[in-house]
Amino acid sequence: MSDSAPQEDATSSPFALTTEEVRVLGVLIEKAFLTPDVYPLSVNGLVTGCNQLTGREPVLQLTESQVQDALDSLIAQRWATRRDQAGARVAKYEHLVRMRHSLPQPEQAVLAILLLRGPQTAGEIRQRIERLHAFADTAAVESVLEHLADKFPSLARQLPRAPGTKEPRWAHLLAGEPDLDSLGETDARMAASGGLASRVAALEAEVQALREELTAFRKQFD
Question: Contact, 64 vs 46, CB < 8 A?
């Protein structure tokens, strides 16, 4: 009779980033696309990006200390690194997703949207990702999602279809396996309220996005 210990479930995610780490990593990836002239980012720039009111679900209010702690942990786990630049007055930071998981830009962009906005359908991702990467159609987004899921270890997975919905959603796995019970409760609340808050946020997003980016750009030089 074998005395070997039971093996870990091969389908479980080996990642366990915190909410703060997920947000900081998502912002690092996003801003590499949107503000390359001021990338890598300072802690101050990261705080602004993490606490944006648009393009973020949920909206957070992280302090500089919380962002710095998240950065230190991401660096220890080799998700990010500090970049010392000649003449720079403050430390700057960048993500290591491309190097760590050999992700091309389309896959980095999709991962960033999942990190910043939680579970979404391929169609929702395509609508929200245009400023990072323009996909020809939803099928192209689905292909990227499937590739993220096929990575070893997997970086994303398709969720069971929620009641009353036509398309399945996808979630990142960098914070571990999604809590399906919690997602179900959130879906029920959104259905009961008609999703008004999300629709308002979506309508305001395009108007506010450029304003947020300009604010982040200015604060980089404060």
Answer: no
